[in-house]
Amino acid sequence: MGLKIYLDGKLVNKEDAKISVFDHGLLYGDGVFEGIRAYNGKVFRLAEHLDRLYNSAKAINLCIPFPAEEMEQVVLKTLRANKLRDGYIRLVVTRGVGDLGLDPRKCPKPTVFCIAGKISLYPEEFYRLGLTIVTASTRKNIPEALSPRIKSLNYLNSILGKMEATLQNAPEAIMLTKDGYVAECTGDNIFILKDKILKTPPTYLGALEGVTRKAVMELATRNKIVCQEEVFTRYDLFTAEECFLTGTAAEVVPVVRIDGRVIGNGHPGKTTLKLIAEFKKLTANEGTEIY
Ligand code: PXG
């Protein structure tokens, strides 16, 4: 059986899941999306992802044509149609079909689609050995222009950062704010451990409010690890005891080298490993039942 895609109220075959060249999601990146995971028959933090989706839509004045409760059913229905218990879900709402002008008023109906498929995981050695990453010279979009807290379809800023990573054979790149503070990575949030305190940049600097980031902050607190949102620089990265990234696809992944500097002892740290284990337990046990 081929992949079934939810598109505007219907489950269609992958080959038939097509949208118009006049869709403003394509023409202008005018839309919002979510990347969600299912583990062991349960969708991890579905309500939080839906909250972020509806908030992102609100921020760009995009009215999703049905409530979050119905969107929850869209996600579950798509997973069931593909008989998935573990997988990656991409939920997208675009401004919809309009004309060639920017004006969103010309788009009467948002396009909604949901893809649920198998996830291609990071290689196992990334978790065992840790990542070697770099800082991108491309700065994060300034929040005053387009808030990076909106998970919009316009990912060019991150893509430019990702291209810099790839050029240096790195799987991720750290992105700094215009003032040179660490914000996040191209598709992951970042944490450091310094003086036994776990630190992650505050989202007002211009980072996405990651669902995984929040889960890890909760797990830290539950495990008596002090965790703070704090503004920090590359100096703090280089001199950190530990560093790791968080994201729906990556989960919690250790970082052992940044811009040629060895972080800590060059191996995934004790706190990082503890949080990886705790996160695994959490995803296996918590979530919205699919079946
Ligand atoms: N920051 C950014 C900029 C993101 O896009 C995260 C942080 C992590 O957030 P969550 O909620 O997932 O913990 C993201 C989400 C990819 C890819 O292919 C990654 C995301 C979105 C789309 C594609 O790496 N990351």
Offer a concise description of the structure.
With 291 residues, the protein is of the alpha+beta class. The chain has helices at residues 24-28, 46-59, 68-81, 124-129, 156-167, 211-222, 234-238, 270-285; strands spanning 4-7, 10-13, 31-39, 42-43, 87-94, 111-117, 131-135, 173-176, 182-185, 189-194, 197-200, 227-229, 242-247, 251-258, 261-262, 288-289. The longest helix has 16 residues, at 270-285.
Could you walk me through the main structural features you see in this protein, from its secondary elements to its overall organization?
29% of the residues lie in helices and 27% in strands. The protein has 291 residues and is of the alpha+beta class. The chain has 2 domains: 114 residues, Aminotransferase class 4, branched-chain amino acid transferase, N-terminal domain (D-amino Acid Aminotransferase, Chain A, domain 1, 2-Layer Sandwich), CATH 3.30.470; 162 residues, D-amino Acid Aminotransferase, Chain A, domain 2. A hairpin with a 2-residue loop joins β1 and β2. Bound molecules: 3-[O-phosphonopyridoxyl]--amino-benzoic acid.
Low-confidence stretches: none
CATH class label of the largest domain: Alpha Beta
Shape: globular
Q: Tell me about the biggest sheet? A: 9 strands, mixed
The CATH H-level homologous superfamily of the largest domain: D-amino Acid Aminotransferase, subunit A, domain 2
* CATH topology call of the largest domain: D-amino Acid Aminotransferase, Chain A, domain 2
The structural class is alpha+beta
Please identify the oligomeric state.
single chain
Number of domains: 2
